[in-house]
Each structure stands twice: as C-alpha cells, then as structure tokens.
Amino acid sequence: MPQRSAKSGLFPLLATAFIWGWPNILIKLVSHDFDALTQSFFRYLAASGTTAAVCLIFWRAAYREGLRNLPHLLLPTAVVTAHQITYMIGVYLTSAIAASVISKTSALFVPALSFLLFPEERAIIRSPKFLAGTGLALTGVMGLVLARGGMMMGEGLAGPSLLILSAFLWSFYSVLIKQVTGRVDPLAITGIVPLLSCVLFFPVWVSFGDLGHIFVAPARSVLIVLGSGIFVIGMGNTLYYVAIQRVGTSISTNFLLSTPLVAGVLAYLILGERLTPLQMAFSAVLLTGCLLISRSARPEASQQPSAVSGQQKTKRKNVLGFTDS
C-alpha cells in the first residue's frame, strides 16, 4: 500500500471510529422523549436524505443505474429494516456500552453465513484463527449476557437477545449485499437502501409507533434524532467508504473494532454508565475474538494490486460496513 494512500486514509478511518461510537449514546439521550420505532424511523429518514444527496452529487451515474435495479435490493432492504428495528429496541433495553459490544458479534455470523452460501469462503471457517476467535467471542457474549450490576437495563434477557438477533440480521444483510453487488454498484447501494428502508419502515411505525411524539418532543430531542441520522449514518458511511478505498477492507474492519471503546468513554462522560471489572474483562474477550475472526479472512489480493482489481475488490466489499446502528 503506498505510504501516501495510507496517510490519506487515516483521517476518514479515525473519523469513522469516532462517529460510530456515538449512535447508542444519542439514542439513549432522547429515549425518554421517543419510543424506539419513532426514533428509528426519523433517524433513517434523515440518513436517507443525506446519503441520497451525496450519491446524486458525487456518484450520480451509479445512483441512476442502481435505481433501475431496485428489485434486487428489496430483500436486503427488508432484512436491514428488521435489523434496525431489533437493534433500536435492544439498545432501549440495555446500556449503551453493552449494545455497542454485543453488536460486534456480527463478526461471528458473517463467516458462518458465507460458509453456507459461498463455497470459496469455506476455508476461512476451518482456520485456527476463526475457531479460536469464535470460542472467545461466544465466551465474551455469554459473560456479558449473564452480567449484572447495571449492564442490563431491561428485564430478563430480552435486550441482549434482540441485539444478538440484530447482529445476525445485519450479517445476513451483508451476505445478501455481497451477491447483489454483481448487479448494482455499491456506491448506489449506500444511497438507495436507506431510502427503501424508510418506505418499508413507514407502515411499521404507523402501526406500532407513537405518531405524536415527533410533534410534542422538545426541539433539542428532535434535532438530536435528525442529527444522529445525518451524522452517524450519513457522514459515517460516506467516510467509511473513503477509508476502504484508501486503506483497504481488512485494515478498516479491524480498526473499527475499537468503536466500543469510543462508545464506552462517551457513555461514561455523557450518560454516567460504567462497567465493572468483570464486565470489562468479558468485553475484552469478545472483541479479541472478533479481531481473530476478522483476521482469519483471506488477504486482500496482494501488496500492490492493480487499479482494476482494486476497484473490483472495493465493489465487492465496501458496503459490508454500512453502519449497524
């Protein structure tokens, strides 16, 4: 990787890690003013406008081509909409730190689903790193789920269970998108999927959400919800795409395992949340397992891939990091 490219990719990578540490904190800040579905719908509405505008300004041709292939995006959009609903409710029922850590279990589900659907991926799941990482990740999740002392805000295991289900749905979406990128440019996907998700989300919100919350909530809370969609999903995903182009998928994926650390610091400073030493230990075990799993993937071609192969690689992988919050 050229030194200049690596240096130019450092800022978007650091910015993405910082931005993606915020979603659970912002969700918690306004959770008393909005039900989970209303907050989730308006966050995605703001995000869809942002990503669509970015695509129309910078990647208009790819966006128009993507609009002509909408049928191929319907199933992935339905899955990511279900992910967003379960994730938001899960965050409401747990602490911001717990949600951030548990969501990283998607690193476990993606290879497992790829094993079932893509024969070329099956060597990964048999690797010692993957098996060791899986064991550590499962141990960390079990420890966090069984932890007490303020980690779980809801009753029983509902919150952690929804977050694990959400991580699975996110992983399923990632695998589906990998199949779709042969037909639809990933640049277009980042702008179209949030918009389609809002369309699918609307009847769910009308049926089960509180339509009046957005009109009676304090202006500060409304701005936080809309700003969260623009800032976390819109800007975060755009910067993540730039980082992948400049430093590659593996480096970006591994580095962004640091987002729970960012979330933990922010949750402590803003929400007053803190982990016990035992909870911190299980969090470290989980993240170490996820790191091993992500490093069990095959190398990204070679040290100096050609421009064409590099572009093809990016097209296959860049959308897999679309934020899960």
Automatic annotation (TrEMBL):
* Transmembrane intervals: 9-29, 41-61, 73-90, 96-118, 130-151, 157-176, 188-208, 220-242, 254-271
Q: Which GO terms describe its cellular component?
A: plasma membrane
Ranges where the EamA domain occurs: 8-145, 159-294
Tell me which domain of life the UniProt entry assigns to the organism this sequence originates from. Answer: Bacteria
Chain coiled-coil ranges? none
Main location (coarse class): membrane
Q: Which UniProt keywords apply?
A: Cell membrane, Membrane, Transmembrane, Transmembrane helix
Q: Where is the composition biased (Polar residues)?
A: 301-312
From the UniProt entry, list the residue stretches annotated as the region Disordered. Answer: 300-325
The membrane topology of this protein is:
Multi-pass membrane protein
Classification via Pfam families: EamA (PF00892)
> Subcellular localization, per the record?
Cell membrane
Name listed for the protein in its UniProt record:
EamA domain-containing protein
Species in which this protein is naturally found: Handelsmanbacteria sp. (strain RIFCSPLOWO2_12_FULL_64_10)
